[in-house]
Amino acid sequence: MPSAASASTSKAINRLTPLEVKNAKPDEGKTEKNLNDGGRLYLVATATRKRWQFQYGLNGKMHKQWLGDYPKISLAQARKLRDEAAKAVDEGKDPRIERQAAKVAAKYAAANTFEMVAREWHTKELAGKGWSDDHAARILQRITADLFPVLGSRPIESLKTRDLLHPLQLVAKRDALDLAKRLRQYITAIMRYAVQTGRIETNPAHDLQGAIASRKATHHAALPLTRLAELVARIDSYTGLKVAKLATRFALLTGARSSEFRFARWTEFDLAAGTWTIPEQREEVEGVKHSGRGEKMSRERVIYLSRQTVALLQELYAINGRAVFVFEGQKRGAPISENTVNLTLRKLGYDTQQDICLHGFRTMMVSSLNESLQFTHDAIERHIGHEGKAREGEAVAGIYKRKAQYLTERQRMLQWWADYLDANTHGQYIAPDAFATADQSNVIPLPVKAA
Fold it and tell me: From the candidates 40, 50, 199, 362, which is the catalytic residue?
């Protein structure tokens, strides 16, 4: 018996015309009519339906395979499907099984596109890592905007390093290098998850490291310590909005980040114990964007309050004691804006790009504490809320250091810093090491509360 493939090379194929196919119907008194296009391809027409059928012989038996309905499958498409099926028969394969396998593969690929796997990864991370709603939404927005249009519909197993690099290059062309770096991290994590769930064998995203240029690090503006007395004097002389002045002074006394103190609530403070507990996440306040933000590194952290800071908060309580936010702004029910402190500094005559900005307070504080030679590096880092990467050989030691709270030292450190700022209010700069050698016997610590 000649195969369909050999038949398809004869002059007996492609007998039908598009018009014949369109007008095909059973003869009068018949329920069905078969029109032979050659190469064992038939159009089976009934009164209500027309279907393409391929007939073939395999392993000594005749078989039939339905290729689809007309007009959904045109004459040209039916002939292409016939040729593919005939080729499979010539190779000793059953085209029905091959087609079913292709459908299963397509269904599997559709369920394992980059977008499907990325969304699955995002859901898992949200549940497992306890991301805040804001943080989770930012990540999903980024990958939706910049990764899904390029990679979303691609089967995860088909993606090579060059494919994953393409959306990063598009983002880098917009000069959004920081965003490109974050997207690379997301891609690496998504592809790692694909490996872990058995979709792929190896992670092609590992080779993206270094493929996109990094932006040169920029440092936040901070005054040299020799101008500390000038800074303190200017803040003390500010005659503008009282809450703005107290917020600026509070930021200098504590070294807290903007989002950490702007969204602070009175319930976080224990003025008797001299502590402020920054939660890893706060309860959202309706209508106040980002009000659920807590400690930046998403872990509870205790800030010890000096006597000066407690006095400042007591003064502030007389103004905002009934407000939701400790640092409520001029709009009732809303905190001061993220630019309040920097705006205050500009009113005091500083360029927040070149001279000093809110974040620069932290720089000056850390520099002074280090130069005093009174406090350990770990206690300073613990207070400031840094989670530095362990140097080689320090991994185990780092575990124990993270457990250590340096309670008494941190409390003494914050009181020293507040007293040092007071010492610099007389208009003449005192170096940290010089102040450290002065008599500090009058420093009375508040009760220690565990971090």
Answer: 362
| Domain locations along the chain | 4-109, 114-208, 225-436
pLDDT-above-90 percentage for the chain: 47
Is the C-alpha dihedral spanning 350, 355, 360, 366 positive or negative?
Answer: negative
Assess whether 242 carries a catalytic annotation.
no
Q: Stretch 216-236: mean pLDDT, rounded?
A: 84
Nearest residue to 202 via CA among 182, 188, 183: 188
Q: Is 257 annotated as catalytic?
A: yes
Question: What CATH architecture is 4-109?
Answer: 2-Layer Sandwich (3.30)
- pTM, entire model: 0.55
- CB-based contact 146:183 (threshold 8 Å): yes
CATH number among 3.20.20.60, 1.10.238.10, 2.40.50.140, 1.10.150.130, domain 114-208: 1.10.150.130
Distance CA 290, CA 141 (A): 16
Q: How is domain 225-436 classified at the CATH fold level? A: hpI Integrase; Chain A (1.10.443)
DSSP lists the bridge partners of residue 35 as 43
* 378/207 Cα distance (integer angstroms): 34
